[in-house]
Amino acid sequence: MDLPKLPIVEPPGPELKPASPAFTKLVESKRAWLEDVLKPWCRTADLAALRLAEANWIDLAGNVDPQKTLWLWAWGRFEGVVSEELEGFEESLALRLTLKSGETVVGFPDGRASRAEGIVLIAEDGLTATAALDEIASAVPA
Fold first, then answer.
1. 119 C-beta neighbours (distance < 10 Å), count
2. Phi, psi of 138 (to 5 degrees)
3. Can you tell me the distance from the alpha carbon of 121 to that of 105, in angstroms, rounded to the nearest whole number?
4. Element (H or E) spanning 71, and its range?
5. Do 69 and 53 contact (CB within 8 A), yes or no?
6. What are the beta bridge partners of residue 106?
7. Coil, strand or helix at 58
8. How many CB atoms lie within 10 A of CB 133?
9. I need a surface site. Which of 10, 13, 53, 118 has the fewest CB within 10 A?
10. Residues 6+ apart with CB under 8 A from 79
11. Angstrom distance (rounded) from CA 71 to CA 41
C-alpha cells in the first residue's frame, strides 16, 4: 500500500511558524523508510519476527493499526491474497495454496475468520481449511 502524500498540516495558532525544512525532510524520510524498508521487510520476515514487530509496532511504524499495515504487507508476499484498497483479504478470488508440506488447498479466503497469522479458505463444498502464513510455500489464483 503506497502511503498517501498528505500535506504537513500546521496546528492553528497565531504564534506558530511554518514547518521548517528540517521537519519536512524528517517527515519525508519516515515515509520513505516505511515504503522502502519496513514494507519490503514485512513481505519476507518469518512469523516470529512479525510477532516481535507487532509488539513494537508503534515504535517502528507510528500510531497505525498493525492489521492494516504489518500483516497486510506480510500477506502481500503472495500476490492476490490481500487487497490493499480494502485493507484485508481478497475474498472474491479463489486461491490455490501450496503448503510447505506439499499439500494443496483451494478455496476463497474468509476475511472474517482469517487472522493476522493465518488464512481460512472456504472450498466450493463448504469445507474450510486453515493455513498459517509460515506454512504457505505459494499462493496463486485457482
1. 28
2. -155, 155
3. 8
4. helix 70-75
5. no
6. 96
7. helix
8. 20
9. 13
10. 139, 140
11. 11
pLDDT, tens digit (0-9, with 9 covering 90-100), for 28-41: 998 999 999 999 99
The answer to whether 116 touches 54, Cβ cutoff 8 Å, is yes
The alpha carbons of the chain give a radius of gyration, in whole angstroms, of: 19
3-state SS record for 12-52: CCCCCCCCCHHHHHHHHHHHHHHHHHHHHHHCCCCHHHHHH
Mark 57-85 as b/e (b = at least 16 C-beta within 10 Å): beebbeeeebeebbbbbbbbbbeebbbee
User: Which of 120, 29, 139, 119 is closest to 72 using CA atoms?
Assistant: 119
> Amino acid identity, residue 136?
I
Give the model's pLDDT for residue 22. Answer: 85
Give pLDDT tens digits for 45-60: 999 999 999 999 999 9
Cell of 118: 493465518
Query: CA-CA distance, 139 to 142, in Å (whole number)?
Result: 9
Residue 131, Cβ neighbours under 10 Å: how many? 21
